[in-house]
């Protein structure tokens, strides 16, 4: 890790100019980037309400959680706001292997002057607390209970963090910020879609100052994102193809909401389908490889009907039938 960055935000930026949101708000930002600032994605589309919630986290030191279905770009949304503010950002995925020691720190054996000595190596939480850094807990509702209680200590706005092993109390840096993303709102895997998520202690959920919901984008905005990611589709023929692809995606989402199918097409999958179209030069093969093969076999006939309805053509039965026709891009 690099040395502690001691400077404060030194400029104020216009939300209207930076994010295209109709407001006179201005937010603090850094004039210089460092190694922990995410790269800017110029084609990223910002949801106005979620963006304002995240900006409140940065400017007013609010604890912000972004909740929503998979593939909506929750973590990326926070990172792209940070990227435009030049705010250092560290993202941690709270999978089942992340332990309390990973977050807090642990004793390690190091070599000093040719001798082995025990030395405390601080974890990511105390490291981030000392710096002007945005810490993102990804998949917050998948964390283990012992890990979650470590996080609870830093959810208080001005809460100090105690390193018991070191008899040390850490006062958070004035520009330390805390964010989280979750597929649920701490109520567990109620619909069977997100295995591994946990019931989150409601006393902990209550400590999040702002909970924003990021839903799937309108069709027009999804089309803009696809064209930005796959420029070869930014033409009249590509527009027609994208409209049909989005129509298929919306049918799967509506069908999922009605409990007719168990898998929906997220914006991430939609982008993968468009990218695979550019690779395989065949819409139906790209659809099968990007989405259909992920679905329950009992549901594939219904999903194939959605494809036929939107493209006015039968979905090819297998890769083998199409293989002789394919000409992979160089």
TrEMBL record:
Any one Gene Ontology biological process term?
ribosomal large subunit assembly
Q: Which GO terms describe its molecular function?
A: ATP binding; ATP hydrolysis activity
Q: Which Gene3D superfamilies does this UniProt record tie to the protein? A: P-loop containing nucleotide triphosphate hydrolases (3.40.50.300)
InterPro entries attached to this UniProt entry: ATPase_dyneun-rel_AAA, CobS_N_dom, P-loop_NTPase
ATPase dynein-related AAA domain span: 64-188
Which residue intervals define the domain Cobaltochelatase subunit CobS N-terminal in the entry? Answer: 7-37
Q: Which SUPFAM superfamilies match?
A: P-loop containing nucleoside triphosphate hydrolases
What GO cellular-component annotations does this UniProt entry give? preribosome, large subunit precursor
Keywords associated with the record: ATP-binding, Nucleotide-binding
Q: What is this protein called?
A: Cobaltochelatase subunit CobS
Native species of this protein? Neptunomonas marina
């Amino acid at each position: 890790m690099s040395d502690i960055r001691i400077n404060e935000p030194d400029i104020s930026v216009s939300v209207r100019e930076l994010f295209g949101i109709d407001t006179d708000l201005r937010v603090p930002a850094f004039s210089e980037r460092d190694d922990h600032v995410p790269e800017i994605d110029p084609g990223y589309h910002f949801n106005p309400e979620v963006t304002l919630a995240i900006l409140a986290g940065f400017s007013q030191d609010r604890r912000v959680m972004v909740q929503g279905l998979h593939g909506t770009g929750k973590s990326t949304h926070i990172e792209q706001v940070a990227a435009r503010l030049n705010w250092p950002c560290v993202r941690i995925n709270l999978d089942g292997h992340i332990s309390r020691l990973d977050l807090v720190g642990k004793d390690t054996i190091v070599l000093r002057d040719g001798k082995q000595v025990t030395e405390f190596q601080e974890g990511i939480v105390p490291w981030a607390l000392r710096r002007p850094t945005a810490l993102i807990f990804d998949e917050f509702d998948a964390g283990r209970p012992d890990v979650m209680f470590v996080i609870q200590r830093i959810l208080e706005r001005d809460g100090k963090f105690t390193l018991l092993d070191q008899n040390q109390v850490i006062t958070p840096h004035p520009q330390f910020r805390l964010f989280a993303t979750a597929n649920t709102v701490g109520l567990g895997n109620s619909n069977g879609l997100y295995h591994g998520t946990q019931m989150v202690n409601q006393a902990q959920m209550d400590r999040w100052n702002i909970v924003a919901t990021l839903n799937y984008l309108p069709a027009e905005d999804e089309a803009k994102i696809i064209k930005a990611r796959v420029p070869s589709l930014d033409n009249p023929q590509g527009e027609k193809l994208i409209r049909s692809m989005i129509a298929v995606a919306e049918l799967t989402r509506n069908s999922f909401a009605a409990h007719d199918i168990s898998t929906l097409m997220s914006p991430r999958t939609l982008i993968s389908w468009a990218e695979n179209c550019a690779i395989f030069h065949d819409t139906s093969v790209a659809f099968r490889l990007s989405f259909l093969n992920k679905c329950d076999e009992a549901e594939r006939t219904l999903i194939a009907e959605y494809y036929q309805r939107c493209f006015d053509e039968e979905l090819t039965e297998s890769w083998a039938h199409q293989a002789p026709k394919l000409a992979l891009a160089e």
